[in-house]
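G.,

No rush on this.
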Amino acid sequence: MSIAGRPVAAQLRARVPALTGRVVARLLADLPVYADLPHEEISGDIADIVQHNLRLFADVVEHRRPATDAELAQQRDSAAQRAEEGVPLDAILTAYQVGTAMCWQETAKGALPGDLATVLEITDRIMVLQQQLTSAVSSAYLEARQILDSQDHGGRHALMAALLTGEPLDRFTHRTGLRPAARYLTMTLALAPHPDELNQPPGPGAGVAARRKIRRVRTALDHFAGTPVLTALDASGGTVLTALDASGGTVLLPAAEPPPWHGPGGLRALIEEATRAAGVPITAAAETAEPEAVPAAVARNAEIVDLIARTGRPPGLYRLADVLLEYQLSRPSEALHGLAQLLRPLEAKPELLRTLETYLELGLDRRATAAALHIHPNTVDYRIRRIDRLTGLSPARPADLQHISAALVARRSV
């Protein structure tokens, strides 16, 4: 089909990049919920689906046929993602209508009186496509919302609550007919805020950025577990159970055997992948436990994650063996208070305390410490001598070094 002597499909394909920019700009101007979306999502997912729709219309016109189910798969996936992010369905359908209208205007532009039959056929084609898009998008969105809503109240949610609260599992099984797995990998995750959460004013945009981050973490968990997160629980308990929000939360993964810690397919690789996908630092603690021991394991994981934050360790995956000293010293005792008091003379000298912490973090390397603090190496030596005079402890003496390390941990725990 041609208008004003130019093939409609070929002309539309050539104009897709520029037309995509105009459609996206119109969405941002006319629909507040789209204006509140993170820039990353606008320039990524939203622009991609607009381009896909424009090219699909070119194919429909060129071949004079309706769209196929396969050609509408990307729109269905996009609608499901928007449902997870809480974008209202009416805003999504309005966006499709805006894009369709602008596509029709671009196609019919410059039509001559002799092109009337072609314009009418194109109008018919685009109306059929609009009907298909509305049906596909609405059904995918509503199905996703139904799943999400039912998950909050289903048996899977009840199982997680039972595991975390320590409800007798024989009573739970009798009550629900669901049987827990033999053991679970328990994980506690702490998620840093995404830049889009910090750069957005309070409102829908920041909420979308947070949900987008959570969805990406769950996708990484899906891939690791080989089963969808937050899906219906089967009789064997074969699913990942999560209680995640923007700051983190708890994950329970049925595990016949404790997963490997290192190497491909290990837990460290999982956290590294989740970090890359979410675009934020993630701190995690993990432990495999039988159902009855899940509450204690989850509590221990939470303590470990808190210890990592308080002791200034970098994000990543940790287990109890990685923080044995810090964990033990965080237990309330008179010894803990006494250890913390060893460095009390430095409280009025924050530059000395900071130098001591940095010196130990960098393996007693005076030059690296000087570079990190932007001072001369001789200044580091001088400060270490002052610390020795004030506290009677020197990192240069192996016996003192143990006490200093313990005292630093104790100070963060009291």
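When you get to it, here's the other one too:
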Amino acid sequence: MEDKVKEDACHTEEGTSCRKSHHPERVKKDLTTRLNRIEGQIRGIKGMIDKDVYCDDIITQLSATQSALNSVAKILLEGHLKGCVVDRLSEGDDAVLDELVVTIQKLMKK
């Protein structure tokens, strides 16, 4: 019964898990910097559309933004593999492998 209470306590009302990663501060800072830059790129693209900039130029910027997002995903995936996955496997939690396969499939849809 106590395990069930712990499990329920670790889910939000939306049903998502509240597990947390533990990235070093330098990695979090790097990710935040990258995401802030991407946010600026998106605002720039919106401005290009408002100004009727040539489509090919907008597509070039979209491609650059997608590449930047992929870089963020790679950093997160590496940290996930080296941290979360290794930790859970060492605890005997093989279900993390199924979760990892789904995660990689999501990344490969792009």
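Residues 45 and 61 are 7 Å apart (CA to CA). Confidence is low (pLDDT under 50) at residues 1-13.

Enjoy the weekend,
O.
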